[in-house]
Each structure stands twice: as structure tokens, then as C-alpha cells.
Amino acid sequence: MATYDRLPVYKECYDLLLLLFQFCGMMQREYRYTLGEALKKELIALITDIFRANCSYRKKELLAGAREHVEVTRLLIRLCHDLKQLPLKTYALASDRIENISKQLTAWERSCKDQ
């Protein structure tokens, strides 16, 4: 079992969380405490599920939950961009990272089904 902080999916998630923490502070007040906080909570829950899946024998359940957090995060980031709270460059970078995370989780989930 790899150390969770060395997993590529964990690193990608952590980098996305750092990126969004930097930009949530620049959101307009009415979005910062609703949309921004929801986004941060989803990403923290995603990282937590990745950690737990790495340490657990019930990986399938945890990875399914992580993939659900990915989709909610994708929706919230798009909403931030549509509401002009996230610049286009940041949105593109975040979308790329979310896509990478989703692909890695899908591959991990497939490898667990083979066991």
C-alpha cells in the first residue's frame, strides 16, 4: 500500500484544493460564504475519501463516494465561473485537474473490481 500523500490522485486533489483556497478569498461576499465554502468542503471530503480508500479494504464504496464528490466539485466550479467568480484561466486549470482526478479514480475503481 502506497503512502496516501504519494498517490498521484491525492497530489492532484491537494493542488486543486490549494488553488481554490486562493481564489475563494477573492470571491464576492455573497458567494464566498456559500459557494466558496461548499466547494472547499467537497474537496476536503474528496481528499478524505482518497485517504480512507488507500487504507481500507472496502475501497469500492469509498471510491464511489470520491467520484460523487468529483462531480459535485465539477458542478460548483462551473457555477463559480458562470457567476464570474473564477477567472477563465483558473477555471481551465481547475477543470483540467478535475478531469485528471476523475480519470485516476475511475482507473483505481476498475482495478478494485478485478480483485
Q: What do these coordinates show?
A:
- This protein is mainly α.
- The protein has a single domain, classed as Up-down Bundle (de novo design (two linked rop proteins)).
- It has four helices and no strands.
- The mean pLDDT is 92.
List the defining traits of the structure above.
115 residues, mainly alpha, de novo design (two linked rop proteins), 82% helix, elongated
Tell me how many strands there are.
0
Radius of gyration: 14 Å
Q: Average pLDDT value?
A: 92
Q: What is the CATH homology-level superfamily?
A: 23S rRNA-intervening sequence
User: What's the N-to-C terminus distance?
Assistant: 15 Å
Count of domain modules: 1
Percentage of residues in helical conformation: over 70%
Q: What is the name of the CATH class?
A: Mainly Alpha
* Helical run tally: 4
Quick one: biggest sheet? none
Structural class: mainly alpha
CATH topology title: de novo design (two linked rop proteins)
Quote the beta fraction: under 5%
Outline the secondary-structure elements.
Blueprint: H1 8-24, H2 29-55, H3 59-82, H4 88-113
Helix pairs in contact: 1-2, 1-4, 2-3, 3-4
Précis, in short:
The chain is mainly α. The chain has a single domain (4-113), classed as Up-down Bundle (de novo design (two linked rop proteins)). The chain contains 4 helices and no strands.
